[in-house]
Design goal:
alpha+beta; 12% strand
Length: 727
Amino acid sequence: MIGPYVLPDEVFDALAAGEGGRPAVLLLRRARRSRNLLLLRRALDGPCGGAAEAAAGLLAGVERVSPEAARSVIDGPAFGTWAARTLRDCPAHGRGGCAGRDLAALTVLAAVRAAHPARITVPVREGRLALPGLGTVTGLGEAPEALVVVETTAGPEGSPDPSAGNCRVRVRVLTAAGERVLPRDPSRPGHGWQPVAVLDARHRGLALRLPLETAVPELPALDTASAGPAAWRELLRQAWELLVENHPRRAEELAAGLNGIVPLPAPARGVASATSRHAFGTVLTSWPADPERLALTLLHEFQHSKLSALTDLVTLFEPGGGPRLYAPWRPDPRPPGGLLQGIYAHLGDLAFWQDRSGRRHGPARADAAWRLAQTRAHVERGLTEAAHVRLTDLGARFLERLARTVRDAEGDGGGSGDERLARAVARVQAGDEAVWRLRWAAADDAGTDRLAALWRSGRPAGPLPAQDVRAATGAVAGPGPEFGRWAARQRGAERARPAREAADAVLAAPHRAQGWAELAAAAAEEGRPGADLLRTRTELVRHLLLRLTAYRTATPPDTPSPRRPDPLALAAWLADTAADTDPAGAGPTTDEEGAARGTPQARPTRPARGLGRLGRVEPAESDPGPEPLVGDGFTTPAESGSGEVAEGSARSTGSWPGAPRAEDAVESGPGPEPGSAAEPVASVEPGPGEGRAAGAQRGDGGGPGQNTGVSMSQNARSPLAKTSATG
């Protein structure tokens, strides 16, 4: 039996406000389990079905005798990513290495937990047999596969019933070269056996139990004292105590939804982190070094998991070709889904820094107040940028609730409303956006030539040329150390550099991006005419300045000299008509990749209700189609605890079956100050609100007072058996 999940209004609104509580997380977890079952059914019906059939049969058998053991695997870190990868890109299909075979490794854990006898063939790669949730058998040589045998024996009382607690399990691994027997207690290391470490934390009755899933030698050595399992346990214990004491409602969500940590290689500076949209509740992170940073990482990344699961159930924006948008926490252009993911994840950061700014003292308090003000500014600017996303009615409602949370948080946090602090954050924001525009936005030559002719003739500028934001390809780094040093100075500066002085510096070196950053910040702080254009159309002002300067240089000496071009004057001249074109400065562009992708049938889009002073959401002309990933993988510098960069910086080299890969990463966690030391990040296209699970149809949803119908299948009693039977 397959039926719809119903997302009650109060649950939707609570999630939109940034939390939701334990009941909402449990609902999202059940919905994701159903999605995984539908993906399994689709995989079995596809070209990889034959390779996965035996493992699916074993999992169904386990589910009949121990539903909880089967659910623990279906909900686990590896299952969703395995299913999505098998359906999306199985390059080895038909060549003996089909990804469908990897399901066998996942089902061994279910058989062991249920004490269910099993014989299943599992692929071996580079002499290693990875069993997610259990551990890794090493030293298997050239064997391409191994037969894993799970045997159960009666305990001292003679009953083989695992529920009685007296059933013993023995796991044997057989290859052509011989046999290996795992330790009686698989959590203990043995010859050629590396168990998965389990991290336990408990405080005030709330408990976490998370596997530290790693099976790859390239990852940080987990047997070292500084970052081994014992160090992770102690760090998690302290972080968990901080969360339970200071964020009890969010801690309840984490206890209900988190299911694993995957260590990542450490970046050159700070902490790398990410989330896979297919692995609900799994956090990928490098060694965080202190409990505060780990607590922030867990809050931030779990926000991504919640939104990814929510967008399985409801559509927040209309897919299709769409704009590449500015996100102040990222160095690269974002698709609409990636922008929404980043906004939502920053609500976790906002709550964290509100609490820390009220508890710290001295320099630590000032630092927390800066992070809080910066995070709030990031969210507000992201909400303004969301005006270019074609929101559904539910999407508009979602952002309204989210904006209300941000407004309600204003004025709290111990000094976050200080005028000097607000000016410093605004300067950094303006400079960062100007540098971003110079990097990614291309000025139109013909349009710039038309504007240059109008300027020389003394006429009004008229409509501004259309904008074109380039797509990011390959690795993407931050603005660079020069901008980072300037941004750091702003925290102690009373005011910006005088705008006139900054404009003269730009005239002397118009190709220097840093000069434009200082000019945009100074013009905004002084309230100069055209200040918005210096931030949101920086590339146009610079291109026009260069054209006019070249024309003046080429003018014969005996001809009347045209007006001297000046960036402040040019921006003010352009601003006379800019308000009639694109107020937020990042109009829609064509997304060729999105246009090529298949898109779900769009529902009618209505203008969104206003977001107050945070900006009014209006539909854009187009937006991107389904994207397989969501996320904002991040890097946190050693002296920082907030900010973000692109998802690929949190690159997983894991090879265990179903391990989240870099391209599966979502928008992720706290990252560097704008312009901090450049950390390379991979360019991928994440975004929530995209694809459906196999066979599912999205509900149209409803307005306030109505339950939101969703299509994610909810299978009666025996989910695995029912899904296998009905698809």
